[in-house]
């Protein structure tokens, strides 16, 4: 590109936020316009990410950061603030790239409307890992032939939401090609609350939370005399950064909000 894309990182002090700051500072096609994080205010963004000083001081003023000629906001914060952060970005004409999960379908529709009114692109992606997106696509394909399935997702014990946004997105993609089918014995009884996991369109999602675990997801299919397992393992946050960069580049070229990184993977 002739001009570097100016990026604001919201949630810069979080574990994913620091990786995004590092990505932006080390990529010659990107420029760090601002870093926003209440708990890290006053710290140089480069130092925060474990790099040499970058001359960008972390602020807690998102509106001021968005007013500084930014092109894209990358948000990895918490569900309670992500919607307001996204609307603020759109209001300033800054394209949102959102990795925070927890948006409702109504909120996504509203944000799409706002993006179109502003004539800018936006992206909400529960997962930026290309491997995880391929798992979702493969699972949706397999569900056409193996309609009996369960999803098991694994994350660290400090994760706030369950099930994960990635597993919900996987379930949504499966539901697009699979008619609702309530699996198992109709007389099944849970002797312990939650033993069968969360119900989605006739199948179950199980959330495992343990220290030492990063992020894995497995979709298990069962059929007569056979089973099929599709699994993806993430080992470190840096593995998401090629997808984050692709998202930053893609939102510069369309209008409206895209929900799901799979739309960029042919």
From TrEMBL:
Quaternary structure and interacting proteins, as annotated: Homotetramer.
Transmembrane segments annotated in the record for this chain: none
EC class: oxidoreductase
Species name: Paenibacillus stellifer
The protein's name in its UniProt record: 4-hydroxy-tetrahydrodipicolinate reductase
Binding site for (S)-2,3,4,5-tetrahydrodipicolinate: 165-166
GO annotation, biological process: diaminopimelate biosynthetic process; lysine biosynthetic process via diaminopimelate
Catalytic activity: (S)-2,3,4,5-tetrahydrodipicolinate + NADP(+) + H2O = (2S,4S)-4-hydroxy-2,3,4,5-tetrahydrodipicolinate + NADPH + H(+); (S)-2,3,4,5-tetrahydrodipicolinate + NAD(+) + H2O = (2S,4S)-4-hydroxy-2,3,4,5-tetrahydrodipicolinate + NADH + H(+)
Domain Dihydrodipicolinate reductase C-terminal: 131-264
Enzyme Commission (EC) number: 1.17.1.8
Family of this protein: Belongs to the DapB family.
């Amino acid at each position: 590109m002739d001009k570097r894309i100016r990026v604001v990182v919201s949630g810069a002090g979080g574990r994913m936020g620091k990786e995004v700051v590092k990505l932006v500072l080390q990529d010659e096609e990107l420029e760090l316009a601002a870093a926003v994080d209440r708990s890290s205010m006053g710290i140089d963004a480069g130092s925060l990410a474990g790099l040499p000083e970058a001359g960008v001081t972390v602020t807690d003023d998102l509106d001021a950061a968005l007013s500084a000629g930014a092109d894209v906001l990358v948000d990895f914060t918490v569900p309670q603030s992500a919607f307001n952060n996204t609307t603020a970005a759109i209001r300033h004409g800054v394209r949102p790239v959102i990795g925070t999960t927890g948006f409702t379908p109504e909120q996504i529709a509203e944000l799409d409307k706002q993006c179109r009114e502003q004539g800018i692109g936006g992206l909400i992606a529960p997962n930026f890992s290309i491997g995880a997106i391929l798992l979702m696509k493969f699972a949706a394909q397999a569900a056409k032939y193996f309609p009996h399935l369960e999803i098991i997702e694994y994350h660290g014990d400090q994760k706030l939401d369950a099930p994960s946004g990635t597993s919900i997105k996987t379930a949504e993609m499966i539901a697009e090609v699979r008619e609702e089918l309530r699996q198992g014995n109709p007389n099944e009884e849970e002797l312990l609350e939650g033993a069968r996991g969360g119900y989605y369109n006739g199948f179950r999602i199980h959330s495992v939370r343990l220290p030492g675990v990063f992020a894995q997801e497995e979709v298990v299919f069962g059929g007569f005399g056979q089973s099929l397992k599709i699994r993806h393992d993430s080992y470190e946050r840096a593995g998401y950064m090629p997808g984050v960069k692709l998202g930053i580049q893609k939102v510069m070229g369309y209008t409206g909000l895209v929900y799901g990184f799979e739309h960029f993977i042919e």
